[in-house]
Input
Amino acid sequence: MDLENPAPIRRLPFMRNFEDAEAFFKKEHDPFYLAAFLIQCWLGGLVIRAAGQYAENKNPKDRSLQTGECWRSFVEFFNLKPEKPCQYPLSCLFRFSALDDSPGNSLRHALVPLTIEHRVTGDYFGPATALNADPQLKTKDSKLKTDDASRRTIIRWCDWLDAEIHLRTHRRWHEFPACFDPDPETRHLAALGNAQRHLSKLDDRAKACWLADFATAVEHFQNSPKWCALGKAMADDSDRQWQYPDVDTLAIALWPLVKAYNWTYRDLLTVIRPALKRGDAYPCGGEQEFAPYCANVLGLRKKAKGVSAKNGRPKGSEIAREWCPALAGGK
Output
């Protein structure tokens, strides 16, 4: 082994369709490529549906985000019945995140807080977990425990993925309003046009993906009046005023902790305040105004009533501070 010149990590190849995935499977004798194509489709569908929530529901009160969509969709894609083992799907998720290091890989982004939560709490599995290496897994009881942990890890990863896609969509809603037409086809063409503006900054895999989508769009829409949406988006540099980006970013990104540890709105506000430039101004003047802002503007609604931490450090807040050091307030 050449330690000074290690072999480069093979990046995930671009797969346009299931036939491409099957070809890689046969060439490499590796079923991962079939699973990777499903993961690719799953992630794309999640982004499309989140954009639809914003485009088709102008009132944030009517949007439904961070309500378990990622896990529900994953179960459907992989036919994960309650009795089906989850170690292999989890290993594929880890491998997909390692091989696709493109900025647009939301799954990879969501792995960061999951890894921190795993390290802080000791719960769930992390990227370095050897799912099949422990000889104790030969016992039926150990296999059941490992499978349960694998399933819970995927579910938790999906919580963080829900937040990542929600934040990504919320940011795009303000920065690229042309991509949120109520019509799904016009929305798709506008997204292609917007991506073309940044084509030179994309990696090779992302460029190949764009070219494939563009070729398909030409075939389907070149004689449609909707085709002009692509050209308009290419030239459109307008945006929406984003009044509270720091508040929105932290509230959306940390919502999985609110869900997992049943934080109150006051808990969340207490945790994010140290990182805010104006922590006492609207919408953070107090729980009375922060709670309706989260629910009515960000679409973040609590289902269970919690009890605020008396010391201002709700359970799980150490995860937030490790993920975002600014939340420690310089301490």
